[in-house]
Amino acid sequence: MFRRCVSFSVFLILVCGSSLWGDKPSATASSADLTFRLPTTSGETVELKKQPDHKVTVVCFLGAECPLARLYGPRLNELQESYRSRGVRLIGVNSNQQDSLEDVQAYVKKYQIQFPMAKDYGNEIADRYQAVRTPEVFVLDENLVVQYRGRIDNQYLPGISRAETTSHDLTNALDQVLSGKPVKLAVTEPNGCFIGRVKKTEVTTSLTFCNEVVRVLNQHCVECHRKGEIAPFSLTDYDEVRGWADTMLETIDDGRMPPWHASPKYGHYANARFMSDEDKKVLRDWVTGGMPYGDVKNMPKLPEFREGWHLPEIPGAVFEMRKRPFQVPAEGVVEYQYFVVDPGFTEDKWVTGAQVLPGNRSVVHHAIVFIRPPDGADFRGIGWLTAYVPGQRIKKLPEGRARKVPAGSKLVFQMHYTPNGSVAEDISKVGLLFGKGEEITHEVFTLIGIDQEFEIPPHANDFPVTAKVRRIPAEAELLAIAPHMHLRGKSFRLFMKQKDESEILLDVPNYDFNWQHIYELSQPMKLDDVDSLEFTVKFDNSKENPFNPDPSEYVTWGDQTWEEMAIAFFEVAEPRKKKKVEKIARNKKPSQKETDEQRKKKYEQLVAEFIQRFDRNQDGQVDVDEVPLATQRYGRYRDHDGDGIIGKEDLWKR
What we know:
By secondary structure, this protein is α+β, with helices and mostly antiparallel strands. Helix content is 18%, strand content 27%. It is built from twelve helices and 33 strands. The strands form ten sheets. Strands 13-23-16-20-24-32-27-30 form an eight-stranded mixed sheet, with no helix packed on it. A five-stranded mixed sheet has the order 6-5-4-8-9. Helix 6 (209-220) packs across helix 9 and helix 8 (245-253) packs antiparallel against helix 9 (277-288). The protein is globular, with a radius of gyration of 28 Å. The two termini are 27 Å apart.
């Protein structure tokens, strides 16, 4: 079990939100002079004159650290190249007070920006254009009339990375302007980071950055929002905090930060992350009160954080996912990648601590390492070993607790990558600490509750699926809970049932795929008197779900994010010397003993359904490669006899 400061993340969620307009603009909102002359990152100047030399000019407001601006940088390069011969000119403008000229130069270099990139000191040009966020584009005709303003397209939104663009807003506007036609959709709302404007307000508060504000940020934010960590910008520097102030308040007010999705009404969790109303008020009053710096003598020290391996000891063994790097493209959707590693264990190992160390944090969304034991091995649970999520903190298992890795086991890396605007490479690895078998009193393993047989109908906005843990180990302790769904996941509720009573143990009313927390109990919970652990997940397959890849689809189980899963993982510790018998959870008590004929009929039906579901090449049998790895792992569909086919005999052994 691991401790962490935040969970699965797409960087967009950290800083990008739905548009927040002071006044709803039109395409011709500003009558101000839209001409300008600004310094560029190359040391030259760029000018937009009253009588431009081009048919169309695209002014694009960008930020050096904004995740959406990073993703769209390469796309704007392609647009400039495609439309240059048609008389289109693109100019980039950075109006953020927190972005120095050096920051903008680094952005241009990393994302190979081919168009002029200007620095708008004092955000004068952003004010003239009434620009709100980055990225935000303005299409100006040859008379400098704004014909379109808003987003570039709809592929990248807060927490969303669609496989394909379905609304080409900027290119549609360009094509219509160039052909002399009116722009059909002249205004769209940009999704991105607030422009970090220089505030022209007098100081009206006694709160200061050096005193009250730094203390709030140190407690809730800087574990991830600091140099070299997973968050896209730092909140340890005064100028940075001032520039990100509006975005910071927006993400706090709408509940995106600090990231935590469980209801405080149920359960007690050691890694809960709540910002009190008092702390929120400190930040809000400081921003509206002019953001004074204060006396540096009052500033507390930055908390100490351990870099690299977080384990209390140097790992006894380290295994890379593979020798050559995996290349992550600049944009698009990358399917889950699986890498199988043979650690060469010739004897059983007891793992007391494990950590995944990502090779490239900027593109590793999450990573899970599973144990794949050899057939016939004495093994408990589903094989979860450890995982990486952004900002996590790792510790050893409690004394006397360890996970068993049988001799001959393989390690399976499940890697989820998210492109960030530039081509990247990754070699992630896992480090292990080992204990002595004679000193291990409790075996730690992961149980699973799962339903793989659901089918979510199109446009359903509240589709429930229920599941339970099939077996509860005798004398075991529950340590942590981890719900898992994909982009249509809406909510999760776990029930603990004892005799005739039912108690809500965990409630996640607003599940978010990008922040899949492992909810770590403050104190281990004894399972002796628990009859069952049952949960209900709900899915939103409607068009109102902004994360939904396609509301018109029937959705079934699958590995990829556009498919779905209904799973809950349960971390438990069980004494190696047991006195009691496992309790088997049943949907209902059997009324009578099944006959051989009934069992045979049920088995034949299982085989027929299995073949119908997975036989992709329609050859009447299911090859191992036709079954998703996650289904093999969680559903226990395995090729026991090693012939490359999952046949009737293999299904009988599941």
